[in-house]
Design goal:
Blueprint lengths: L1 E8 L4 E8 L3 E5 L2 E5 L4 E8 L3 H10 L2 E8 L6 E7 L4
Antiparallel strand pairs: 1-2, 2-5, 3-4, 6-7
Length: 88
């Protein structure tokens, strides 16, 4: 039995996803038995959150140009159209 925990890490600008064992338990994964203590966590995912400026900078560093961006009114979510950057 596991619970889900999402934690905001402000320093890394990301949400960290964890599974938390609700009880002392042993689970079988790929034929192996793995023990979990109550409260022990499994860090399953990092979901990074970037400002539009930071995202386009990361894309540019990787060789992409932001052709267009669409966002919700609060600018909480965005969709980007990226094109390979041409070298003149």
């Amino acid at each position: 039995m596991f619970a889900h925990r999402a934690v905001w890490n402000d320093e890394e600008s990301r949400i960290e996803m964890h599974l938390v064992s609700r009880i002392d338990q042993t689970v079988r994964i790929a034929g192996q038995h793995i023990r979990f203590g109550r409260g022990e966590t499994i860090h399953t995912e990092n979901s990074y959150k970037h400002t539009p400026e930071r995202f386009t900078s990361i894309a540019a560093d990787a060789g992409w140009h932001c052709q267009a961006m669409w966002t919700d009114p609060a600018r909480l979510f965005a969709l980007y159209l990226l094109e390979p950057r041409t070298i003149a």
